[in-house]
From TrEMBL:
Region Disordered, annotated ranges: 303-349
Protein name: Thioredoxin domain-containing protein
Sequence ranges of Low complexity compositional bias: 316-332
Keywords: Membrane, Transmembrane, Transmembrane helix
Residues covered by the Thioredoxin domain: 51-225
The organism of origin for this protein: Nocardiopsis rhodophaea
Domain of life, source organism: Bacteria
Lineage: Bacteria, Bacillati, Actinomycetota, Actinomycetes, Streptosporangiales
UniProt entry tagged with the keyword Membrane: yes
One Pfam family named in its UniProt record: Thioredoxin_4
CDD domains: DsbA_family
Amino acid sequence: MGKAERRASRERLKQERLKAQQRAKRNRILGVVGAALVVVLVVVGGGYWFLTASNTGDELTADLPPQTLQQDGSVVLAKDGAKAPVVSVYADFQCPACKQFETAVGSTLQQLAADGDAIVHYRPVSIFSQQPAPVSSNSLRAAAAARAAADYGKYVEYNDVLFENQPAEGKPGFSVDDLISWGKKVGIDDPAFGDRVKAENKVVDTYTGDYTKKLMKKAQDELGTNELSTMTVGDLLEWGDDNGVDSSFLDGTYVRQTLDATIAAYTRFTGDNKFEGTPSVYINGSKMGNEAFNPQQLKQAVLNADPGKVDTTPLASDEGAEPGAEASASAEPEADDAPTTDESPQAKE
């Protein structure tokens, strides 16, 4: 993408953010109270927080189907040979709305996958990566640990534990000791898992500490607030590399993979399907609304949909990081330590 195209893209993003702010203002003065369901919509770091009452999902009554790690770090949960709609779930482990979503329909999605009625594509992202710590560090540290758990085929179980233990927004949480302990809880006994979690935490500390402070100050001084407000994480990383703020310490890490997945989510969809925050749920590439939080409505939408196709490539056993491969303790890991994504920014679900 050339400079002119990036400027045009940032201007469009700026206008969309202004519209989102106007919508948020209207939402703050609206309340909807029902006898059986209360839904509160709050804009949280670009995501939507739906608090649902008396809205519980199906209990999982079968074993989880196979979990297949993809080259971009996402995970596909599906029966072997399943021909079913693809339900893509974009979530941030620090996002309160994502916890509400998982509480409401997480087990329903797992049951649909176990029954062969859905292919569930878990796509972890970090919408808080540009926010101050601890919200940014919580988000990235959890995502990197979940990616490490995926190396052992335990992503879904670890996903559930992370949301069960989500720290309050703005409070420190997802400590290294807890992340390692939760790995053991879901059946990961390899000490290399803990080594990877520790190494990724050092990368998170560097990213959310000195690197982000230096990058944001330099961008603020040279670009100004208006220009900076239109830039995505990808824009900032690219600009920093071109202007003396080196991001190479992220190469080969699961932190970088999470950032890349987030960048791709914002560029993958357009129009009514545009990715605007977490949780975002798509069935065969079509974005769902509030009904995604209702287990019965979500299940019916899946059953009514045509079979879909996963748009990512499975990670071969001899590719990328070995389970528990350790990122450099100096926060400058080698690029071969983790798989790279083959997703085009313009790919569709």
